[in-house]
Amino acid sequence: MKEGAVDYLAKPADADAIEQALVAHGRKLPPPPSNPMSADRVRWEHIQRVFEQCDRNVSETARRLNMHRRTLQRILGKHAPRSTRPRPLITAALVLNAFALGMAYALVALGFVLALNASGAVNFAHGDLVVLGGAAAVVAASWTGLPGPLLLPLVALALAVAGAIAARVAILPLAGRPPKQPSSPPSRLPPS
Fold it and tell me: 65: pLDDT confidence band, cut at 50, 70 and 90?
């Protein structure tokens, strides 16, 4: 401590702690904080503050902290020390997202099975319609601002229109034609 100093304030200090330290008489120490940060958290906050002050330049930050650059990169690569509060909303959101993605995969797989059983051939064309449905949902959500369940009728209508156009342009003109006989390639073998 410098000469004349009787106490110090731990960083980060809020305005009340600074005021108490300035107006305090005698050598009475201020009361300890009710919820102090852990040593790992204080270290993390200090490194992040210096990192931001150095314009997120790892080499400059390592030089100012007198630390090896690779060590600093390892520290920055890790997440901040975890808080002790539970995060039930994040867990619920992850579970719902996983459930929704699983349902989408199940629908795509069901489409493959139906197309295979109906035609006897593997048809990947319905994957295009799945992508078109996703794109229609994104566009409809950005235009209307409606939540997901209310977008379902709009997306279904858009895909019905797309299906009708595809049937009119690609399927119906070919429906009345007789199937073409495959032409065999010329044989180069001598007749036997």
Answer: very high
Q: How far is CA 120 from CA 12, 91, 152, in A?
A: 70, 42, 31
Cβ 30 vs Cβ 21: under 8 Å: yes
Residue 131, burial from CB neighbour count under 10 angstroms (0-12, 13-18, 19+): exposed
Distance CA 61, CA 184 (A): 73
Instruction: Tell me, rounded to whole angstroms, the distance of Cα 114 from its chain centroid.
Output: 32
Start-to-end CA span in the chain (Å): 108
157 and 165 in contact (C-beta within 8 Å)?
A: no
On the question of pLDDT at 1 being above 50, the answer is no
Q: Which of 39, 26, 18, 34 shows the shortest CA–CA distance to 9? A: 18
Nearest one of 39, 49, 41 to 83, comparing CA atoms = 41
Tokens of 90: 């994040």
Give the tens place of pLDDT for each residue, 77-125.
876 666 556 677 888 888 999 999 999 889 888 888 888 888 777 777 7
CA distance readout (Å), 117 to 91, 111, 124, 192: 39, 10, 13, 42
pTM of the predicted model as reported, rounded to 2 decimal places: 0.39
